Structures are given as structure tokens and as C-alpha cells.
Amino acid sequence: MTQIADDTRWLDATAQAQLVREGKVSARELTQAAIERIERIDPTLNSVNYQWFDHGRELAATVDRDKPATAFAGVPFLLKDLHTFYAGFPISNGNKAMKAANFTPTFSTTLVKRFAAQHLVFLGRATSPEWGSVPVTEPEAWGISRNPWNTDRTCGGSSGGSAAAVAAGMVPIAHASDGGGSIRIPASCCGLVGLKVSQGRITVGPTRLESNLGVELCVSRSVRDTASMLDAVHGPGVGDLVIAPAPSRPYAEELGAPTGRLRIGLATTKFTGEAIHPDCVDAVTNTARLLESLGHHVEPAFPAALNDPRAAARFSALWATNMAANRDGLASLLGREVTIDDIELMNWSMAEYASNLSALDYALATNAAGAFRRGVAQWWEDGWDLLLTPTTSAPPLPVGTSRNDPADPGATGRISADWVSFTSQFNTTGQPAISLPMHWNADGLPIGVQLVAAYAREDVLIRVASQLEDAAPWAHRRPTI
User: Fold this and answer.
1) Domains, the chain, with CATH or none
2) 182 is catalytic
3) Given CB 3.0 to 4.6 Å as the disulfide criterion, which of 132, 246, 275, 334 pairs with 158?
């Protein structure tokens, strides 16, 4: 690689933007360096499925000409291949029929407009599993995306392509979304920062509803990048149903701010009491000890409602309904009826399951989810500040573990549920949660830990995440790919 591609590879987005702002590097040079890295590295990882390099060069030239003062002007960036419409550029949602049709939206979603207003340089899309339905990124439409720390392991999902690209140093930050753990899981697998914001913190309009499970932001290498990106894009859109309370000050001002002595609950097993992998126990217990050394009180505790045996079935009913809606939406986008040949087996099976639910079934699941939300949130209301858990119950899975099995369409879902038993609960409750790269195991694989705060308290998460990053830095850890 050229010198500039090497020199800028491991800089976070804040540092890269500063180089452009100070005139030390042009946006075009920074963009060309990222393109060079993608061309060199991505054939091994398969994480960037749409490449818009000429468009990126045009955007970079505009930054060099106009010299905008936005926080991320000139920074190379990828959009996840899920939900984020960008006018004039294709999207597949990880689906083979949409890919074949080369579906190209005529408008941009609100968040994409906000990314564009930051003068980020869009270089393409990062891979996603079909409709983001599983926590690995191995869609039939695009093939397996691999983990830069070990290419025989998953990069996680559904924002796996974004996480692999950032972890490998192709781009410093990338768009990500989370409907059941899809920001936090790949952040854990790839050694990154992954913040799932509160429901209603960032609009997902105009094509999606804030009252559903999914939220959007990014994966990054540093807490400061995540805080600054949240500052850049948060806020409601036209017609939003859920709007989180506005922050009292910019999130970037939470970096290094005093945290006070926090009361933190700790989970070292699944909420059902089942044991998890020793590497994940080590990650969370070591982090607990570090938090205590920083002045916090940590003790084993978590909301009793998280052990509700009915919670998984309620989430499955809501998630399966999303798959049925996606199937109908696909038919609308393609202008024809879709068949089982157009959709991956597990997602087709979920859509069929949801089609057999009644309106009453869905209403009961929604009402029960509301009761679950209140029951979990009460724990924070009763005086707890944070919950500390592993992000996953085991290290990154070998690739192929979750492939579709025609003889057992439910196998992928069961494997996924066992591995990612700590994340989807907080999509149901709408609370913010962050995965931090606090541990690497003996095999050199990153193991993330999750911190969960009360609704709308991203400020607390960013303060504590910043404190942990200062106490146990991870920026020097880089995969050898």
C-alpha cells in the first residue's frame, strides 16, 4: 500500500477529519487511501458489497473545494446494506431477489441525508444478512463476510460488513443498525465500539417506525467517534411516533466528564442462570474489577423481569412479524409476487409463522412486551445506574455455524438465540446499550462487554465508556490481516 494508506489506516474518524480540516491531507487523498485499502483487503473479508469509488472521489472533491466545517468532513464511510436508501444508488437488504433486480431508490432516508450533511464520503455499502435477521453475516446473496481477527470466524451481524471493514482499517467508521443486537454483536466480534441508542433517539424515517425494535447509528474504533456521530445525527424526523428526550449538552462533552460513584449490576451467566463460555466470564469479571478500581460499586444483580421465560416467545412473534412485513415489502419493491426461491429459508419460515398469527396474537405480544419493558425499567428506577453483561455468550462463532438447514429451518434461530442471549431484551425495552472491546482471549479473538443504561441515558454510557477506554485502551490492538 502507499504511505498515506498505511499512515491513515488506524486513525479514528475524528483524527482523519482533523487532518483534512488542518489541510495536512486532502479529502481526495484520504478517500484514495481508503479505496486502496478496500481493494487490497476486502477480497479476503468480503465486507463491501457495493463499491461507489468514483462517487466517493466526487464527494471528496466537493469537500476540498468547499471546505465545510462539519465534524466528519472528508471521512471515508460505508452505508450498511439494510434499510438506508440513498437516492440513485442500489440496495439489496441482503436479499438475492433485490440484488438481481438492482433495486435503486429514488430518495434518501432521513439518516442518510444527515450523514451526507456531515460531508462524509460514501464509498459503498457494507454487507448485511438478509433483512438483518441473524447475528452472522453470511447472506446467500453475497456470501460469507469474515472476521479480520480470524477469517475462519464470523464478524457478527447484522452489521457485520461494517464492523469487519472498520476493524480491518479500511474505513474508520461505518453505519450500523440494531434490531436485536446487530450493532453490539459485530462490535464485540471485531473489537469495536458499538452503541445501540434509545428508541426514538435517532429517526429511522420515512420508511420505518421508531416504535419498532430497530435503531441506527454506527460502529467505530473510539468512544469519541461514537459520541461525535451521535451529536451529528440524533433527533426526530417528520411524523416520528417515539421521540427520546433531548440531551442536556452535546454527547462529546461527556467524554472524560466525572461519572460519580455508580451502582452497577453484574451478570456472569445468562439471565436464565445457564453458564456461558469462560472467555466471556473473564471479560465481564475483569471489567467489573476495573470499574470497582475506578470507584464504582459492582455486585451481582439484574432485573428479575429479564428471566421471564415468556420474553423470547414475545420477541420472536414481533421479529417474525417484521419478516412477514419485509416479505410483503419485497413484493411491492419488485412489483411481483415473491416465492420461497426469492427469500432465505429461515426468513421465509418466520414470515410463514407470522402469517398464521392472528391480530389478537400480535396485540397480546405487543401488550406483553410493554409490561416487560416496564418491569425491566423499574430496576433502574429503583436505584441502579448500569447493568454490566457479556455482549455474547461465547467468542465469535466459526463461519458456517448458522447456515440455513433445509431439514431444520429453525436451527439457525436456535443457534443464534443461544449465542446472543444478552442483547435483544434491550431492543424490546428501548434502552441504550453499548458494547466495548474490553478483552481478547488466548486465541486473539476480541470479546466485548455490554453496559446498559436507563432509557435516554446515553450520556451515562458515554461517560463510563470513556472512563474505561482511558483506563484500559484498545486502540493499539489491531488485526494482522
Assistant:
1) 3-471 (3.90.1300.10)
2) yes
3) 132
